[in-house]
Write a structure and sequence with these properties.
heterodimer, A: Arc Repressor Mutant, subunit A, 2 domains, elongated
Chain lengths: 189, 76
């Protein structure tokens, strides 16, 4: 280890650890995993500080390292997941009948709040977070990648090693589940 | 008329990229007649908006103890 970069890394850590932790936890939904990712990120940063030398913005550099670590983790999780089957994530019986009509207990109800006000409320985000944890790993990853990094579908499919049509089916079902979960916790609370 | 299952899928996809003219027409026609899919579409937009702003709305921090522990491991 290059002891000479310890001071630089310590100061980067103090400045960016919270930011990176926050970036990680919204993507992995687990405190311990997010902390590990932050740790891994700074270990890489220390190792590669010599080639970085403030050539780019530190926050950009650190975020790029973290992002790669998150993608690696996603890949690993998806590989584990794919030992099982996609069947559960591509079934719609809970929501629609065989003709594709809404099932009675899955019918959306009117949330009766103005859209603008709803998204300003902290509770709504807490419920969204909670409902995201109720999704399966693959569903959450597919959804989160789309939303948080504006990643293109082809890239996501490549990273997750799924076909585009499977991807849309997974996100469709995930959306139905999320909507139902939010309705249950927010509107009927 | 397309089914609610297809309409919700189309509505969900449309949020990411504009569908072709035929799909747009089919979707609009379905939404005109089906208040449940219309609700889905509206709520889907809310969920998308919120999801893309999760970062700013749900900030969490590490404890000082965690930070100390992690920094120590990094520098070890």
């Amino acid at each position: 280890m290059e002891k000479k970069y310890h001071a630089e890394i310590t100061s980067l850590f103090q400045e960016y650890a919270d930011y990176l932790f926050n970036y990680a936890i919204t993507r992995v939904n687990d405190q311990e995993t997010a902390e590990d990712l932050v740790q891994e990120t700074f270990i890489s940063a220390l190792k590669n500080y010599g080639s970085f030398q403030n050539k780019s913005k530190a926050s950009t550099w650190l975020t790029a390292i973290l992002k790669n670590k998150i993608i690696d983790l996603y890949r690993k999780k998806v590989r584990e997941y794919r030992q099982e089957s996609l069947d559960d994530l591509t079934r719609f019986e809970d929501f629609f009948d065989e003709k594709g009509h809404w099932k009675k207990d899955a019918l959306p109800s009117d949330w009766k709040v103005s859209t603008d006000r709803l998204v300003e409320q902290k509770e709504f985000y807490d419920i969204l977070q909670l409902c995201l944890t109720r999704l399966s790993e693959l569903q959450r990853i597919a959804f989160v990648m789309k939303h948080m990094d504006d990643a293109r579908t082809e890239e996501i499919c490549k990273e997750l090693d799924i076909t585009a049509s499977n991807y849309w089916v997974i996100v469709h079902r995930a959306k139905l589940q999320l909507r139902q979960c939010i309705e249950k916790h927010w509107i009927n609370a | 008329m397309i089914s609610c299952k297809d309409a919700t899928e189309l509505a969900m996809k449309s949020a990411y990229r504009k569908p072709g003219a035929y799909d747009r027409l089919r979707l609009r026609f379905h939404m005109l007649l089906c208040k449940f899919c219309k609700l889905f579409q509206k709520q889907n937009t809310i969920i998308d908006d919120a999801a893309s702003r999760l970062d700013e709305f749900a900030p969490k921090q590490m404890t000082e103890d965690s930070k100390k522990r992690i920094l120590k491991k990094v520098l070890d």
